[in-house]
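Feature request disguised as a bug: please show the residue count (229) next to Fumarylacetoacetate hydrolase family protein in the output. Example input:
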Amino acid sequence: MVSYVFPPASVPALPVAGSADLFPVHRIYCVGRNFADHAVEMGHDPNKEPPFFFQKNPDTLVPSGATIAYPKMTADLHHEVELVVALKAGGEDIPVERALDLVFGYGVGLDLTRRDLQGEAKKLGRPWEVGKAFEDGAPCSALVPVEKIGHPASGRIFLNINGAPKQQGDLNQMIWKVPEMIATLSTLFRLAPGDLIFAGTPAGVGPIAKGDRLEGGVAGVGEITLTVA
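Example output, currently without the count:
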């Protein structure tokens, strides 16, 4: 019998819509600047960049409907609403035409960002983890299986704060589509069942204040709510 020096952490997991099953999460990959209008608002030319990725830690996931504390060490917390892709299978060097075979389902996520810390890291040429991979930094809705909704390639994606619209876009505006994201990621990492991909955010990202209520969604997939205490 294996004996650990202290009890191991529980497996991060997300609910599956319409089921009592949980989806165990392995890794969280995020696609940077995948909507042209967001790339422009961040000061970049979307026509010149191949896809790039960063990671969040699986234990930063929080469910829709949660209330979280305003994060430490930041005065500029930002919202980024995103389609989330959940993988049921993995591999390396996956061809684009086979990539969708790996997908279990889809959800709606918030890539919360300590923008001031991220900006400082960029200036110094340092990694972004302090701006992205912090506690409660990856709220996510329940996952909806492909069998129920197919593979959404278009549809409204939005975020409101306290009822006021902040982000509006359509999935068809993504520069790199879901099969291309999966195929490219699989050349860089060995993908595995349980991996999540946060697929990028439309323009309109901005600050969150203490006490704000966030409501976002992706048409045909679902919605997410979050309160910042």
